[in-house]
Amino acid sequence: MADQNKEIVLAIRDLCKSFGDNHVLNHFDLDLYKGENLVVLGKSGSGKSVLIKCIIGLMKPDQGSITIFGQDVLSLEHEELDRLRMKIGFLFQSNALYDSMTVKENLEFPLRRHWMKKEMNPAKVNELVMEALENVGLEHTIDMMPVELSGGMRKRIALARTLILKPEIILYDEPTTGLDPITAKEIIQLMIDIQHKYQTSSIIISHDLQCVSMASDRVVMLIDGICYASGNYKELRTREDQKVKLFFD
């Protein structure tokens, strides 16, 4: 149920997506509120990545609606969808940095892509690059290549690149996968700091319970293609439902 006192920035209704007889999303509903970190928790193959791809328009659902800032994503033309995507940051599980570019060039890339029809002001671009690097504590890496960075540093740079367009919504795809527990905790804290600094609204796809417990304001459990259960971490952890308990045992 929607909370009448909170602004909904993203609403999903009756979303269905099947691959043959595999009903990955089966009348799935979800609300994301302004300023919250929402974790979508589900086992591998449960449809979490499909959900993200539908949200950003990379995959078309079989039925249902996705509304972001009052706009129906599924009815938008390419140019309108591109403009909406400027308000949405996406942190890939693989980081997706360009190996042939320096850190500075990687951070400049989304600015060039989205501002290519406008006059680029080098001083403004440099200011945005430095601000993004300061946010993740890696100003000294500006001229380094991705291959020179540790896994945790690459994740931070990918997050800096996500932040450079000042998105209002951030989608995190398994942000702590492949990281050691200490580095993972640092990335989670960074996500929380960004939420507080920029009042971002985030959907976090994860099955890392440390990430879920630390970063989530609310958790939605994607089981059997539906929003099977929702609540805060403590509430879900103490439920007696066997399908829910499996995630916490």
Please give the share of residues in helix. Answer: 25-40%
Could you state the order of secondary-structure elements as H and E? EEEHEEHEHHHEHEHEEHH
Low-confidence stretches: none
Q: Note the main sheet.
A: 6 strands, mixed
Describe the structure.
The protein is an alpha/beta fold. The protein starts with 7 loop residues before the first strand and ends with a helix. The longest helix is centred in the C-terminal third of the chain and has 18 residues, at 181-198. It has nine helices and ten strands. A six-stranded mixed sheet has the order 6-7-8-3-9-10, with helices on both faces. Helices cover 36% and strands 25% of the residues. The protein is globular.
Question: How are the secondary structure elements laid out?
Answer:
Layout lengths: L7 E12 L2 E12 L3 E5 L6 H8 L7 E6 L2 E2 L5 H8 L2 E4 L11 H13 L6 H14 L15 H13 L5 E5 L7 H18 L2 E5 L3 H7 L2 E6 L2 E6 L1 H5 L4 H4 L4
Parallel strand pairs: 3-8, 3-9, 6-7, 7-8
Antiparallel strand pairs: 1-2, 1-4, 4-5, 9-10
Helix pairs in contact: 3-4, 3-5, 4-5, 6-7
